[in-house]
Task: structure prediction
Amino acid sequence: MAMSMMSASESNDTGYSDAARPLDLVHLAKYTFGDRGLESELLGLFRSQAGIYVSRLEAAATAKDWRDAAHSLKGSARGLGAWALGDIAEDVELLDFDNAEGRADAVTRLRDAIVVVNGYIDELMS
Result:
């Protein structure tokens, strides 16, 4: 599938100010050494993996399972420069596993943040 991506130095016509972007494009460009193909590949991988991490959170039977899934999502988000999502994932990672209501709220917050990041990725790749 052919995808075009805006580089960090190109104009931003996605409707986000630089500070409000769900992804730090400068970080992403540095992380991938400016390789647009690698950027596209990583963004695509994130889109497919983020839902898997959330499913693992929902299915977590132990605190360790919960922490591992949240930690993986946190690393994936921060690797791309999705700082806000990474911060939410960190909060989720530290959440008391015995708080079932808190876990449900945390998963909802993560899902909402992932929708924002994935929507932005869609705009970049269109």
